[in-house]
Design brief:
This protein is α/β, with parallel strands linked by helices. The chain is about 45% helix and about 15% strand. The chain has 19 helices and 16 strands. The chain has helices at about 10-20, 30-40, 60-70, 85-95, 110-120, 145-155, 175-185, 205-210, 225-230, 245-260, 285-290, 295-300, 320-330, 335-345, 350-365, 375-380, 390-405, 410-420, 420-430, and strands at about 1-5, 25-30, 45-50, 80-85, 100-105, 165, 190-195, 210, 225, 235-240, 260, 270, 275-280, 305, 335, 370. Strands 2-1-3-4-5 form a five-stranded parallel β-sheet, with helices on both faces. It has a five-stranded parallel β-sheet with strand order 7-10-13-6-14, with helices on both faces. It is globular. It starts with a strand and ends with a helix.
């Protein structure tokens, strides 16, 4: 059952009709007291709540109701509806544990998508996992506990429409994770569009992402489709989103929030149906505190966070990776057990990308197909000591701390939000000294 909380009778009636037509049972509440009574007495699985009460100019009444609901049902997802100009209010709600927010006037399809996703990700929702034979690993190599957990997370979230933020050092395979999410989703037959935001200048951002009309600027001799249009129906992968210029972030927020935009030089609003997966090696929580990254955009892109471990923390995967890269470089090549042990002992500041380069160079330079330690030693001198892990560890700690705050200390709910098991979250909390 879905609970709709709004003091406007027309909004309640409209949402009731929409949700019932989509197969949901619906309960209605026009006041905080009615809402609390419904949460206490009815089998409510999700609440849709308007934050902009007609008798409140600050939204404080909506925030107070949200807190009361989360005290009673901490794991029940709440989706907030607010005006575009009140997005800061929605961000306050996300800090207090709301699952998502959507702006008025809402798009019915988008609202239903957000509801289905929130229900699918709720910790108390029964899920049916696909078999391994149905799962496409997209070339991801590794059976370490960390990678098994990440693959299990992908299996769980891929069928949903959840926005995903992948964090990790350079060379850890963020793009492969994004592709695996797409390939195992309901959108797998549709486009997977990759965008390196770090390579797009501020002056070209609108043309590149939204497209342009003929004559929009000097040299625009024809119209052009942007990356969001190219991804329509599929998934857009926003790599290096931490490099996005602050002046472009509000434009990005609008299209991610409303799935609508205008081409440069046009007034016609175009709508797209997309799933968003983002990635960064930057410390976004710190950037939010420094006001170099918008907090509302941060909440929009990271409904689920996947933290990729550096290669030095998953050494048991190195033999598999070495054999994989060697087979691709030369099917006759092999590495001795001693060579494998030596490769396992290296720090790899460049992660998987650096290991691949090392394996390929060793095969190329070795006089025989059998690679031993003597063949590696001239090369490994270039593998410098790793950069201090502090920045990434700091980002992971902040992501965990923020999830715990949003879930009011509920470890099970925070683990679900982070895409990890409760046991792993406890280990991370112990590692970082979090309570």
């Amino acid at each position: 059952m879905i609970l709709v909380i709004d003091d406007n009778s027309a909004v309640r009636a409209s949402l009731k009709l929409l949700l019932e037509h989509s197969g949901h049972r619906v309960a209605l509440a026009k006041s905080p007291d009615e809402a609390i009574e419904a949460v206490r007495s009815l089998p409510v699985r999700l609440a849709v709540m308007d934050m902009n009460y007609t008798n409140s100019t600050t939204g404080q009444e909506g925030l107070e109701l949200l807190q009361r609901v989360k005290v009673l049902r901490p794991q029940m997802p709440v989706i907030l509806i607010t005006a575009w100009g009140s997005i800061p209010l929605a961000v306050d709600g996300m800090r207090l544990g709301a699952a998502d927010f959507i702006t008025k006037p809402w798009d019915n399809r988008l609202l239903l998508q957000r509801i289905d996703t929130a229900l699918a990700l709720a910790p108390d929702t029964d899920r049916t996992e696909g078999s391994d034979s149905d799962f496409d690993r997209c070339g991801i190599i590794g059976n370490s506990p960390q990678m098994q957990e990440i693959m299990a997370t992908i299996k769980r979230i891929a069928p949903t429409e959840a926005s995903v933020l992948i964090i990790g050092e350079n060379g850890t395979g963020k793009e492969l994770i994004a592709e695996a999410i797409h390939r195992n989703s309901r959108r797998s037959a549709q486009p997977f569009v990759k965008v390196n935001l770090g390579g797009i200048s501020q002056s070209l951002f609108e043309s590149e992402m939204f497209g342009h009309a003929r004559g929009a600027y000097t040299g625009a001799v024809g119209e052009r489709q942007g990356r969001f249009e190219a991804a329509n129906g599929g998934t857009i992968f926003l790599d290096e989103i931490g490099d996005l210029d602050t002046s472009c972030q509000v434009k990005m927020l609008r299209v991610l929030q409303e799935h609508a935009f205008e081409r440069l030089g046009e007034t016609k609003t175009r709508r797209v149906d997309i799933r968003v997966v983002s990635a960064t090696n930057a410390n976004l929580p710190q950037m939010v505190r420094d006001r170099s990254f918008r907090e509302d955009l941060f909440y929009r892109i990271n409904l689920i966070t996947i933290a990729l471990p550096p290669l030095r923390e998953r050494q048991s995967d190195i033999p598999l990776l070495v054999r994989h890269f060697a087979q691709r470089a030369n099917p006759d090549a092999s590495f001795s057990p001693a060579a494998i042990e030596l490769l396992k002992s290296l720090p790899y500041p460049g992660n998987i990308r650096q290991l691949k380069n090392l394996v390929e160079r060793a095969i190329l330079l070795s006089p025989t197909p059998r690679i031993d330690t003597v063949d590696l030693k001239p090369l490994i001198a270039e593998v410098k000591q790793p950069t201090p892990p502090g920045p990434m560890e700091s980002q992971e700690r902040q992501a965990i701390n923020e999830a715990l705050e949003r879930c009011h200390g509920n470890v099970a709910h925070a683990a679900s939000m982070l895409g990890i098991t409760r046991q792993t979250l406890y280990r991370r909390m112990e590692k970082f000294g979090l309570k």
